[in-house]
Write the structure tokens for this entry.
Amino acid sequence: MEVLKVSATSNPKSVAGALAAVVREKSCAEIQSVGAGAVNQAIKAIAIARGFVAPNGINLVCIPAFSEVQIDGEERTAIKFIIEPR
């Protein structure tokens, strides 16, 4: 599964384009984000990506979950979003 990492400074439209491409190619993707700003940008990107793939008859669904990631030697809790077509 392709993992896209989103930060608080990520451009949601760019992330949405990457997400739409991955979903079209592999039919599922994962977005990882750490922090409130990053989660906000990830949700925006998912909403935009739904609009990108809707004309092709693809309806995206999002499954949120927690994930532990290593950042600078520290273990941090991330939110991961598993994106799949319905």
